[in-house]
Records
---
Amino acid sequence: MTLELSDDERSIAAGSRGAGAAMALRIVADSARLLGAPRLIPIESAHIDGALYHGDSGTIFAERLVDGDATVSVRATLNVGALDLMGCSRVRLEEPARGMARRMMEAYRKLGCEQSWTCAPYQAGHRPERGSDVAWGESNAVVFCNSVLGARTNRYGDFLDIACAIAGKAPDYGLHRPENRRATIVFDVSALPASFLGSEIAWPVLGSLYGREIGNAVGVVTGVSADPGEDALKAFGAAAASSGAVGLFHIAGVTPEAQDVGTALGGVAPEATIHVTREMASDAQSRLSTAGKTETIDAVAIGSPHLSLAEFDMLENFIAGRRLRVPIHACTGRHVVSELDRAGRRKALEELGVVVVADTCVVVTPILSDNPGGVLMTNSGKFAHYAPGNTGYSVLYASLADCVESAVSGKPFLTELAR
Amino acid sequence: MNTVGGEVLVAGLGGAGVGLVLTAPISFWGGIDPASGRVSDVRHPEHGASIAGKVIFLPGTIGSSSASAVLLELVHNGHAPAALILHEPDAILLLGLIVAREMGWPPPVALRLDRGNFDRFSGRRVSVTSDGMVQVEA
């Protein structure tokens, strides 16, 4: 299929609105051609994952757009950067990388993006309407936006997200089209005991399994009797988008495009049904850990995706005023930090040994002590996936309750999975 | 047959290097070190290998939407693969090459080729032309 651009789009690509807008439109159009999209469609918002420093190239790119007088034409929130601009935690990024990371964050501000600096923009007031077309980056935000909000986005890679936000357009392709949002695979968890499904680790563990089994297909989870809540869905999506290329999931009776399994499947028989067994869930749980048997832990990290205020409530309840022997790095956005600060809660947590990390997180920039071979405990399926490669720590995966008990005692405390 | 033709996904420079066939899907962000091109995902079967200067064969890609940023960085810092051969197009990854071209940094060519063709190139010196011919060098 050949891409047809409108006269207006062709003129922008040729430079009628400046060099930055032209480059953005050409990137959107080139991507559309690669995808086989017939046209571009208007978008209502964007979430930009491109402001995280991976090397100088990203900074040079963003500054090229700024120099070309580009600005975003739709609401655009920013995902995490490489620095904690709130000054809650100390980022060990050294110059010259530190200066380049700051320049990059500044360039995205100049392009007109909101200084949200969170991977959970959907809990920071950016919640597009069901059925609206948007261009979101950050794999967990994409999957939440599609699955839980019912807005329509593809998995926009770094650079295409900001290019779409400047152009106000995206390729008409993939999950923007209703026919591609139908589930083709059933992921049936009805054989799992209620004690497991009700446990705190069920959703990140199942998400990790789901992503590995489903890859980039659209699936519908069946056998879930009650809405597990937004933070559980957030954890499920984040884990699924780490182990697979998941952009959209449905949960029958829970998510907006899956009133029931038939609706999610669009009235068509599924291509496959995955019957999840206790053994599969248990195996998925053990695969999240890479640390062997250990008597000590070196750090705890939570908050991937960024913690909500409700998750801070849970953290405080589990800690119950006890001092920590091992620090808990609690990653969150400034939207939550301001709420915590209003009631003096951040200071109280910090006095007990919690390190609040704002605007960024421990797997995208060096915050954890430099300790190759150290053991990191986490309740996040996404941290479990990325921490070994990005931090050099091995991972011990556990519930939040177990993470807190372990941080208090300094020794791994693991409750046996309810079978 | 030691030559096969692939479909050009993103035009770029032809190149030559040792064929590295990845045996599992990979996330470039969190899976490839952007400074060196080394496979950093400890759970990946090719953990420790480097994609810099290699002709890489990808059965699939997963994970982060920052794959494009990692590939752009590899092009910019001189640690990009000599060519990329994908079983199926990955718009996020290939975006890194599209942006490199916009920035005036010549990217390596990226081709689509069925993964059934991959094994014959593993560990051999492979050349890839800008119009999509993949060949084991004599």
Note: Chain A touches chain B at residues 23, 26-27, 30-31, 34-35, 49-50, 52, 54-58, 60-61, 64, 137-139, 142, 154-161, 211, 215, 241-245, 290, 363, 385-386, 388-390 (CB under 8 Å).
---
Amino acid sequence: MFTEFLQFLLSGVTVGATYALVGVGFSIIYNASQVINFAQGEFVMLGGMMAWFLFERAGLPMPAAVPLAIAGTVLVGLALEKFAIEPARNASIVTLIIITIGASIFLRGGAQLVWGRDFHALPALSGDAPIDLSGVAVNPQSLWVMGCTVVVVILLHWFFSRTMTGRAMRAVAFNMLAAQLAGVNNRLILMFSFGLSAALGALAGVLIAPITLTYPDVGIMLGLKGFCAAILGGLGYPYGAIVGGLIVGISEAMTAGYVSSAYKDAVAFVIILMTLFFMPNGLFGRRGIERV
Amino acid sequence: MNRFMRLATPRYGGMLGLAAIIAVLPAFLPNSFYFDVVILVGLNAIVCIGLNLLVGYAGQISLGHAGFFGLGAYASAILTGNYGWPPVLALLAGAAGTGLLAFAVARPIMKLRGHYLAMGTLGLGIIISIVLTQEVDLTGGPDGMPVSGFSVLGWEPSGVLVWYWIVGGLLLLTVWLALNIVESPVGRALRAVHGSEAAAQTMGVDVVHYKVLVFVVSAVLASIAGSVFVHYIGFVTPSEAGFVHSIELITMVVLGGLASIYGAVVGAAILTTLPQLLTALHDYEMLGFGAIMMGVMIFMPKGLVPTVARLIRDRVR
């Protein structure tokens, strides 16, 4: 009974950690530009697909394939910012949303063209023989997902509180104009944010690919769930997105385990609607004040 | 304003122009494939006009409108198929039910702003599509279900030409309705809400009331279009209610031009025909579609119709 619960919890935290990484990416780009990047899920897809391609097809060893896949996705993120977001800087929010949706269709189309429509399996980083922990079967890949997420969170915390770039990013998020007056290069920060988000997405993609398989459309749902995580935690609060991702992941696993696996995908959205009905700015978001 | 000037206003001139296009278009459509595409354009345009009232005029984004389209579609499919209701009654019941649901969720949803609203409507749409997919006994599940033809008092429309006139008539009716809403005090109130909710409220506009109203109107239009769609196609699948369809609809609205009734029609026409043209590209179809979407929005952030209208106006001056 209790081991069963732990088993569900474990799979929930694993998936939740992925959602958290994607959600943090949403928040970082939002902070730098007020843009919701609907192509965020495609970064996850690209990370997984590139790693699979470099490892299986190009025959590179895993320690080389993974960093290269992440680097490749970062390049795509930077290109997206340079050629699609930057030229439309002054467009309305809705227009920017449509541009990023266009980008996500473009990237999915590109992935289909290059790698085909099939499902691909990336081998797990350290085998897939489950480790038995007093009755709970732990997939080694789950440990990788959780471990990497914890490391990323610690690194991000250090980056945002200790480094000049990280603090400049927080300044831009707080007040773009004031940051600019204080000498922060907004365009560079925006560029950097897209790169960082792409890296986080790609990392999530590489880590989850051995568990969920990877295919051109894998990013749609992962991206939406990551968006749920970001909104649930309060948009623009990277730490909130982490909590949001874990909540979404765990409740999904519990629903699939105890209630109905058919409605697993609906859980995230039911939670988000219920939360927004009572807390319109997410769990940790502050009330926005509108200037008339 | 003299009679000649009136023709230049969207209300008279535009409707006359649209009616003329609808009237002469059949002469230029060589076969039923083209009719089929044009009928789908008309149905999408009806949804988009409603959606544009919400997004373009009232400034409230919705990423879940396909959910309402799907509810109308399945209401017609299930009520006529499983319960033997007459199609007209099923259509009206679907519209009323969708309107009620929209009304019930409108107050909490319309409280949300910006990206939170985008998430809320997106979530609503996805929940609707998941329910339609999973309730297999009622909806046929992911495979969908067949739908009987339409009939009014024993008359059954058949053939693409008849459907063409039905959809064309409905489209004109929707345009007329939307233009009336836009040019009425309600339309002014919606624009005030778009400009600034706090300012509108201070001026005595009941912001919540108008937002709820336009949300319900747009949902009901989507539901009706959904009902007509399934009777025309004769089949329904949950993808009609899905996220991708919602995105297609909002893209039509933004591409054609926000706060432009005819922009919604143009957007629907372009995005419905574009995939047909792009099939010639085979594997490059999605790539091309995404690139066109990005390109148009980057270079014409206000959408096609407002941008072209401005160009023409500047040229005339």
Note: Residues 19 and 226 of chain A are 5 Å apart (CA to CA).
